[in-house]
């Protein structure tokens, strides 16, 4: 067995001592100095940052209309559309500004129709949806029924005039016009709409050679639960002609539009073959499907409801501004739209003109199987790698088997000493993880107590390198060094019996070298375990573990391992480290940096029930993520430090870097939030009639203040000192879709800005028991509100139906629940109905016990609870918003209330 593969020298061997270990002077000469190690660390970090910049920050030059020509894509033209849409301000469903946005998109589409190639037929339609119900089973929508009405979409179909069959085979390109109520939506998703309009203009000049048509869907209602895509895919007469779907989205603003979900190998290969600037990461798909990213896109509708193959793209730069006022034009990076448009135009021209693509799409739509799943990723944004998942599994299994055979043979030849060394190497992996995670987690717990904000690094993400990266790296070294010391102790015992002819000093040095090699090889074990687990659970991004295992192992075997067991170990070559890490760093360093950036940006909205999570939790998430990256990416580099005489110097530098970062955030010199990267703070005027059992009492009216970012609202209240806010965990508000568990209330001047006529009404029309089954009919009047959420107590109610004008909108069956409640969310246009009939079917146990318990209960639980929203800023809310610091911004989502919310409910003892 080669010396580098874990064998121990037999007692019968008479080793030839290398000149490299002949004397103490020579030993000291070959010890690595602090400058070399620091240089290696700098090269590693700089290389990782360079990879990130090349892979994610290198954008193409934007083109104007003249440069792009009649058939090309012009970012300047697309930006004109974005500029107009953002000038309208927020345009949520049901708003006047959304009507203006739809009119603008329709007008631009009419111009595209007039200027299309003479052999191209452009068909334009303004689609007005019927009332509908959207019930999805996965992700964010478990336990929910989403209702919608009076939505308007713009549809633009581009087909060749003289090929009628193209009308029956459409490639759908989809995005949404609407925004949440808190932002003008430059990134999410006016940029997508601008790109689509410019794409449609270009496609209209090429489509005469197409085999498939291209359908551009500009939908509304996406921000309220993917309702726009659902209404199209279930109601429009063109829906059955769609055979492939492309969704354009944004989880931040600008940067590269990255392919983060793809269904089929053939589709991914088609994109890879023609994309000018490929950006694709299956790791994002893995994170999305795991539920780690609490979000959803229209792509879920196209997959789950329509069974369509397709691709999903999204912007992910600056995720901290997502759904806030800072999603604005000035943060759009030049080249972002050009990157998206050039890729999409090339892909559409290729796929729409290809008979093979059409055939594959038709077959996949009929079969709807997962056999065509693929692994995909880009290399430095220049080249995209795609291969089938089944091939990946076969290849991974082959590498795993070979690795196990090599390790098994090595341990067999090494005997008991080799097996013990292997066990200590595995222990060093565990110790490395433990120490690397523990130190930054301790920092995560400390930060809320010494900093003005629990998450003080959001506006300056580079601070996490010092705050969490330094202690993680120090902890990783400490854990690994303990393993190194244990290895030395074991090897000293072995060598004392097998190397009696070696001088003591030489033997100690040889032991150091042998321990160093085992620590280096522990990286192989670590990544092999990850590869085995990833392959077993069919994780697409397991290719990362494969590269981190194979490349360093090959470099080690080529440069370090020898065929003679009689040679004593030499010091590991620096070139082994450099060559071994080139491929891993190029393949995954940029992704690791992007992952950290996205996690930091998402921390500002991590608390889905404000006040429900501890202040330190956001920091812990970031700390653990950083520690795991450090443990796995630095495992080989750290093994070169242990026999250095300058370990203390490097440790001191890490401590100094950590101390400087901590001083910056604790002193407030570097602000936690800025006007451009703001802390989400929502201000809602609440009118609550939930606790009123009769009509004689006045509704409870107050101003509610809460934040989805961990931490109290102490700093915000400095500027609101005269508004008489009271804060605490007793200031909870049940907004039906979520509960504010820590918030602030103010009753000051809250009686104006609303009227009793706007308070919703829940009225029991009938309550009867037939054959032991209890049934209750409730009329729901939301008054002027066309956006509301209603919760139904599933501990009491088995099932329910919802009717609108005698039409059963929600039938019996298929109701899931979350925490004992099923939630109905409604969002629609101005002409949406406001009166509904809710029929409740009680469970047998509830029929027998609820009334008896209600007689004795002091706090009777709610049977149904309702929140209605009005998109109006009352005078007091306007005053509070004006006084809030500039580094605060309202955060919007489908479950959040508007600035005026009415609460009511019915108790179980009705």
From TrEMBL:
The residue stretches assigned to a coiled coil in this entry are none
Polar residues biased stretches: 1-10
Biological-process GO terms, alphabetical: proteolysis
Lineage: superkingdom: Eukaryota
Per UniProt, subcellular location reads as: Endoplasmic reticulum membrane; Vacuole membrane
InterPro entries the UniProt entry points to: Fxna-like_M28_dom, M28_fam, Peptidase_M28
Q: Which Gene3D superfamilies match?
A: Zn peptidases (3.40.630.10)
Q: Which cofactors does this protein require? A: Zn(2+)
UniProt keywords, alphabetically: Endoplasmic reticulum, Glycoprotein, Hydrolase, Membrane, Metal-binding, Metalloprotease, Protease, Transmembrane, Transmembrane helix, Vacuole, Zinc
Single GO MF annotation = metallopeptidase activity
Name a GO CC annotation attached to this entry. Answer: vacuolar membrane
Every copy of the Peptidase M28 domain together lies at: 158-347
In its keyword annotation, does this UniProt entry include ATP-binding? no
Principal location listed in the UniProt entry: endoplasmic reticulum
According to the record, the residues making up region (Disordered) are 1-25
Q: Where are the transmembrane segments?
A: 33-52, 394-414, 426-450, 462-487, 518-537, 543-563, 575-596, 616-638, 650-673
Read off the Pfam families from this record: Peptidase_M28 (PF04389)
Family named by the database record: Belongs to the peptidase M28 family.
State its role.
May be involved in vacuolar sorting and osmoregulation.
This protein is called Vacuolar membrane protease
